[in-house]
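User: Could you check the structure of this?
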Amino acid sequence: MQHLHWIDILIVIISIIITLGTGFYFANKQKSAEQYFAGSKNIPAWAIGMSIFATLISSVTFLAYPAAAYKSNWILLVQGLMVPVVLLGFIWFIVPLFRKVIRLSTYEYFERRFGFFTRMYSSIAFILTHFSKMGTVLYLVSLALSSLTGFPVTGFIISLSIVILLLTLLGGIEAVIWMDVIQGFLLIGGGLLCVGILLFQSEGGPTYMLTEAFNMKKIDVGPYNFSFVELTFWVMVVNGAFYTLQKYGTDQTIVQRYLTAKSDKDAKRAAYIGVFASVPVWTLFMLIGSLLYVFYNSGGAVLPTDMKADQVFPYFISTQLPVGAVGLVMAALIAAAVSSLDSDMNCMAAIGVEDFYQKLKPNCSDKERLFMGRLLVLFSGIAMTIVALLYVAWEGEGVLGIVFQLYAIFSAGVVGIFLLGLFSTRANKQGLHIGLAVCVLFTAYAVLTTTKIDDVLMLDLGQYNFPQHKYMLGVYSHLIVLVVGYTASLFFKSEPADKELTIYGYLKEKQ
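Assistant: Sure, the predicted C-alpha cells are below.
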C-alpha cells in the first residue's frame, strides 16, 4: 500500500473488524425469518432513521456528488432537496398504510390492489434496479480505494464483498441497521473533516474559499430556464418529486425499515430523521466539490494534467490529508458502500422469499424461509461481485451498459402504479396492464433512441428520437402508467377497490 501510513491502515482495519463483529454479535439472535428480515420491533426510531440515512447516502454520493459539483454546480442536489418537500405531504399516511396491509414485501400491496402480475412486475423491477446498482457501487468504491492505495481493484472488490456478505448473512436486518448507525456517523465525520481542511488550509480561509466558490458559480442550482430538453433546475424539481415517491413509497430498502419500528409513530419519526439527515449531507458533499474546484483553480495546488473530475477528490485525499485523516476518510468511504449494499442484499433476499419462494412453496416452514433468505443473500452477494469484476474486465460499462438499459425498459412506471392504487378506487388491473404495456413500449423507444454504444445510437430515428433530457424519461413513464392506466380502466367493469388500500380509507379512519 504505497500511499498509506500504518496509522491509516490500522483505522481501516479497525472499522472492518467492527463491521464483522456486529454481524457475529447478532448472528445468534436470528431464530426466525421474521427476526431476520423485520427485526425484534425494539429498535429505536432514531436508529432506524440513521439506517435510512446511511442507506440513501451510498459511496456513489461520496464520490459522485463532489465530482458533479467540481465539474458543474449543485444542480443534482435539487433532486435531494425535493425529498422533504414531497415527503411531508405523503409520509403521514404511507407509513401506516404499509404497516397495516403488508407482512414484509412492499409489493404485497401491489398484489392486493391490482393482482399477482403487478406484484411480480414491481418486484422484478426492484430486483433488477438494485442488482445493477450494487455491482456499480462496489466497482466505484473499489476503484477509488485502489487509486488511494495502489492495491488492485479486484482485491478490494473481493475483500469488500466478503465483509458485506458476512455482516448481512449472519446478522440480518438488526445487524444492518445498527451497523448503518455507526457507518452513518463515520460518513458525516469524514465529510466534515474534508470540508474543514479545504476551508482552513487556504491562506484566505473560509470566507475566501466560499466567496470564490460563489463567484465561480460553483454554488448554484441553475440553469433556471423552463426547459426539459437540457438539464435545468425544473427538470430536477420534477425528477426529484418522482424520485421521492419511488424511494419512500415503492422501494423495499426503505419500506422494510418502517416495519422494524415499534409503532406507526416511531416509523414516521424514523422516516423524517432519515430525510432531514440526508439533505445536509448531500449538501456537504456538493460543497466539497465546489471547494475542490476553488482549491485547484485559484493559484494554489495544481492537479496532474488530464485528470478527470471524478478523480479529483480521491487525489485530494491521498495528497492533502494528514496521517490519520486519510484512514478516517477511507473508512467513511467503505462505510458508505457497506451501509448501502448490506441493505440491498437483505431486502433483495426478503423479496425473493416473500414474493417468489413463498408463492412456489406456500406451506414452507419458518425454518425453510430463513434458510432460503440466507441463501438468497449469498447469491446476491456473489452476483454483485461478478458484476463489479465484469466492470473491471470491460473497463467501464461496455456490455453491462446495454444490459442495464434493458433493465430500465422493463422496470418503468412503478410510481405510476403506486399513485393509481392510492388515489383511485376506480382503477383496475385490466386498465393498469394496458398502462404498463404502453409504458414499456415508450420506455424502450426513449432509451434506445438516446443511448449510445461506441458513440452510435442503439436506435436512430433521426428527428423522431426522444428529444428531452434523459432524466425526464422516468417522469414520463410514471405519468403514462397513471394516465393510461386510469383511462383504460374506465372501459372495464370491476368492483371498486377496497378503500382500506387507498388514501380514502385512511382519511375515513381518522375522522
